[in-house]
Amino acid sequence: MTEVAYTRERRDRVRGPRTPRHRAAQPAENFANSFTALGELAYEGAQVSASVTDLDTGRSLLAIDERIVLPTASIGKILLLVEVSARLTERDSSGYGILDKTPRDAVGDSGIWQHLQAPSLPVADLATLVGASSDNLATNVLLRQVGLHAVRARTESLGLLRTALLDLVRDSRGPDDAPQLSVGSAAELSWLFAALARGEVVDSLTSSRVLGWLSLNSDLSMVASAFGLDPLSHRGVDHGMLLVNKTGADSGVRSEAGVMRGPRSALSYAVSVQFNDSGIAARLRVLDAMRTVGFDLLEYVH
């Protein structure tokens, strides 16, 4: 009975409203520059959220409004990849086969399938495109196959309360569409990458497959821009470092989450910024701040 009461109390506490905090929760000395850089963005009016956790000890290294929900653009595609990978592990027939692209799946922006002649691709290849280039067309075709409801159910089963893939990818969003492709909290995204690294998302095979897809990610323009890695080839260890990450970018949104291992230690991280994208200067300030976080991550693990 005591255990039931504790579970109910914890659930109510997690789901209850929280007051945003523009301060770090006992930041490690290594991350003082990150706290300063992100704090300056917050003082300028941006919404900032960050979470960094030592992968081996579970120690929180940086926590800035880590539980608030912010738009995360394409980062929510990770949840789709988890569902696809789980179906492949379960040998569910919906996870196999070759899928066709149709006019209703068409969408622009990120991805290369829209520029290819191939009208059909295997499910695993589509997931590879999503991991490598955040391919929007491949995302929509996979979503049509597995269903957004299944992705949401899988997300809830992982215990994620503030992170969700809300919709398929659209060139424009009307009043009847979800206002964002995805949302998330930095704390949950950092936990998700840590759980993937430990093989705890569904099971070790499912987690490993998702990490394999994401290891192809070619966007190192945000936090990971500080690591000096080759954007097109960084699946292996480079100067003792190994990175797996996912980014999300939209008008007024920059977000990145990942896991990084170096010679000294390993960590998981997530940083999201929602800002007034009024000009190139505002955008560059956000990217500079995220790069500063990357330098602190690099110093910690190397």
TrEMBL record:
Q: Which UniProt keywords apply?
A: Hydrolase
Q: Where is this region: Disordered?
A: 1-25
A GO molecular function assigned to this protein is:
hydrolase activity
Top-rank lineage group of the source organism: Bacteria
Pfam families linked: Beta-lactamase2 (PF13354)
Compositional bias (Basic and acidic residues) spans? Answer: 1-15
Instruction: State the SUPFAM superfamilies in the record.
Output: beta-lactamase/transpeptidase-like (SSF56601)
All residue ranges annotated as the Beta-lactamase class A catalytic domain in the record: 50-273
Q: Report if keyword Hydrolase is assigned.
A: yes
Q: Does the keyword Hydrolase apply?
A: yes
Q: Which PANTHER family match?
A: BETA-LACTAMASE, BETA-LACTAMASE-TYPE TRANSPEPTIDASE FOLD CONTAINING PROTEIN
Q: What is this protein called?
A: Serine hydrolase
